[in-house]
Design goal:
It is built from 9 helices and 10 strands. Helices cover 36% and strands 16% of the residues. Strands 6-5-7-10 form a 4-stranded parallel beta sheet, with helices on both faces. A two-stranded antiparallel ribbon has the order 1-2. Strands 3-4 form a two-stranded antiparallel ribbon. It is of the alpha/beta class.
Length: 286
């Protein structure tokens, strides 16, 4: 009898070890997590909580917590070395620039504000190599381009950024740098970190997550990754389908256009292709 109990205990312990090892592999793989649990707030929160050596920090040293936007680019950076050979400088309100930016615009120049994610911020290059800077270089005597891009942003954050930060600079034009992956970001309240989320009801968009808590609020130590996955499986929210994601994205873009027009600003949507989209046969949805 004792031998049987020992054998059963060994089998149970062995199975538990296999499950735990497998769970540690799954929880650290975004591709596997996405395939199993799809694009949900709880899935992204679980990934963030279980990153190796996670100290509950924002995912980039150039960002800081913001109660409405989740995170913003730090203001007044002076050639901060983000990575080898990549330097960040910024002005007030986290505008990525090498220059001092005045709130009152130079009336002899056409002021353009660009908003968007890391493709607009230019997260892998220094200031001089962002597309916003190249746009200004087309006619530096008559153009002034303010780069409000922030890595990881969805269009809900871009809308709030437009309302809270961009409008006070009274730009003549606002350009939204549209990247396809932003569409999925628009339906979750956590991805790279906690973020505001909009939902649509009766063809209107409503802000459902208006206050973002400090970083420590979202920390949770899961010593057993199998328990983290079990908790996710039990509490995972319903996945928002593709039709919902695209419709919400459309409404957010319409709202940004409306806000811009109400303030006498021209709104432009600029499609920024990712590397895998730069092929001849990539299907484009009209």
């Amino acid at each position: 009898m004792k031998q049987k109990i020992k054998f059963i205990s060994f089998i149970v312990a062995f199975c538990f070890v296999i499950i735990e090892i497998s769970s540690r592999y799954v929880v650290r793989s975004e591709n596997l997590m996405y395939a199993i649990f799809n694009n949900t707030t709880d899935m992204w929160l679980t990934i963030w909580q279980n990153k190796p050596n996670n100290r509950g920090e924002l995912y980039s040293p150039v960002y800081e917590w913001h109660e409405k936007l989740g995170w913003v680019l730090k203001s007044n950076l002076d050639r901060f070395e983000f990575s080898d050979g990549v330097y960040y400088s910024s002005a007030n309100d986290g505008i990525r620039t090498n220059k001092n930016i005045k709130l009152e615009k130079d009336t002899s120049k056409y002021r353009i504000a660009v908003i968007g994610d890391s493709y607009t911020e230019g997260s892998e290059v220094s200031n001089d190599f962002t597309w916003a800077n190249f746009l200004e270089l087309n006619d530096p005597d008559r153009l002034e381009v303010l780069n409000f891009g922030v890595g990881g942003y969805g269009h809900g954050q871009c809308l709030i950024r437009l309302q809270n930060d961009v409008l006070k600079y009274k730009p003549d034009m606002v350009i939204l740098g549209f990247v396809n992956c932003d569409v999925e970001r628009n339906t979750v309240a956590f991805r790279d970190f906690a973020q505001p989320r909009f939902e649509f009801r009766n063809d209107q968009i409503l802000l459902t997550d208006s206050i973002i808590q400090p970083v420590d609020f979202y920390k949770k130590n899961w010593p057993l990754k199998s328990m983290a996955l079990m908790n996710l499986a039990v509490h995972n929210e319903e996945w928002k389908n593709w039709e919902y994601q695209y419709y919400l994205t459309e409404l957010l873009a319409v709202e940004m256009n409306k806000v811009s027009k109400e303030n006498g600003i021209k709104f432009v949507l600029a499609f920024l292709p990712t590397p895998n989209e730069l092929v001849d046969d990539y299907p484009v949805k009209n």
